[in-house]
Structures are given as structure tokens and as C-alpha cells.
Amino acid sequence: MTQRASQDIHTQIKGESRLTLRQMESLMGYVLVAPLLVCILVLVVYPFFFAIAISFTDRSIGAGGAFVGLANFEYLFNQAAFLETVRNTIVLVSVVQISKLFLGLGIAVLLNLPIRGRQFWRGLILIPWAMPAFVAFITWKLMFVPQGGALNYMLIESGLVTTHVDFLGTRELAMPSVIVALVWRGFPFWVITFLAGLQSVPEELYEAAALDGANAWQRFLNVSLPGIRHIVLIVILVSTIGTTNNFEGIFLLTGGGPSNSTMTFPVFAYYSLQNLNIGEAAAVGVAMLPIFAMLAFVVAILLQRDES
Fold this sequence. Notes:
The protein is mostly helical. Helices cover 76% and strands 0% of the residues. The protein is built from 14 helices and no strands.
């Protein structure tokens, strides 16, 4: 009886030591993950909720703020300039994203073909995206200059116009000019991402489609496009957020003018900060959250539907 009790005690101690080892392994896992969690909390979570909290106050630079509820949002939506900013942002982002989608897909399909020197063209297409944003947009601004600008010189020399055109100084041409510069700066990211996706599509699918009599357009619609559908959705989501938050391009080209014709959310928030009103500037950023949340929700639903 005593020997049996001793065996039971030994088994219990062995089980406890095994459990302790598992706990130590779990603790080590938490220790390894802890720095990443701290970084996420400090750099992402805290600023996110802090900005939301500030948007409900009248806080300004150098002074504390009192809780004002929805007063900042009511003030924004009662401003004609803010409503024009919303419209400009929607137009700019929509046109830029559609343009980059068609341009990126078309060039990616072309660079995926066995054309001569395609490695050279693949490297060349990355130049606009690899160029620093400041340099790229200052270059476009110099090209748009009425007196001595490259575009005006080419238009006048070709006889298309007889007088200098102020691309960035007129309400009718400012937005199209900004869109051209943003598309030129951002479409290489779409090209290289779509190209990587196209190269992952099995070649056997194209061969089977060709044997079934599918032409090049049908192979693109039924093989290429479904094969990179997830990539297209993710790129649209990421690029839409980036384009909506683009500040340096619009600020360097037009500063939101003329007459607020190119004013967007980031530039509007910047001018709010110039007035030392942090609460109003934060409200501008928070007003963008529903748009991003809805877009992310739609993309997540589409991805989940494909997986199901």
C-alpha cells in the first residue's frame, strides 16, 4: 500500500512538472510577442483612439480642451469648403483609382508577354514610383508652369494652342492636372503587383483555354483576372487609403486651390492645424473613418465569398 501511494505521488509530481514546463513555454511565447504588442499599442492603437477623443474637444495647440460633443463635426458639415472637400476627395480618388486599375492591368499583361527586352521595361516602369514624392511632384509642377513649362512649350510648338495654359491656376484644369500627376506617380505599384500575380497563375490553365478555342481576351477574362482577383481587391483597398491620405502631391502642386477646387481631406486638416485647432483637424480625420471602414468591409466580404 505504501509503495502504491509512493507511485501515485511520483506520477502526480511528474504531471505537475510537465504542466509547469508547458506554462514556461507559454510564458516564453508571451515574452517574445510582447514587444510587438507594445509597438502596436503605442504606435497604432493609442494614437487612433487619442485622435477620436480629441475630435470631441475644442483642444488647441498649447492649451487643453473641453468636451464639446459633436460641435466640431457640426461645424465642419456646415462649412461649404468642407462639403467641397468631400466632393473633391471622392472625385479625385475615384478617377485616380480607376485610371491606375486599367493602366496597371494593361501594362502588367503586356509585360507578362515574352516581348523583347521585357526585363528592361519592367525596371523602367518602376522609376515614377521609386522617385521621391517631393522630387516627382515638383517636377510636374515645373512642367505645368505657364511660362517656360514643358507642356506649354510642346502644345504651342505643335500648334494645339496659341496662348499659354495655366494648368494649375484655373478651376477647370487644376483637378485633371493633379489627377495626371497622381496616376503617373502611383501606377507602377499596381503594375508590379499585378505582374507578380500574373506570373503565379499556372501556365497549364492558359494552354487548356487555348485548346478550348479561347482567344487572348477570353483567356484574360477567364484565366488571368480570376487568378489575380484577390490581389486586385487588396491593391484597390491599400491604394485607395493611400490616395485619400495623399498630402504632399496636392499640397506641392496646388495647395488645395485655386478656390478650393483641389482641396482634399489631408490638406483641409493641415489648414485646420495652421489655425492651431487640433480638435477640428482631428474631426476631419475621424470623418474619413466610416469611408475606410465601409471599403474594408466590402473587400473583406468579397474575399470571404471567394474562399467560401
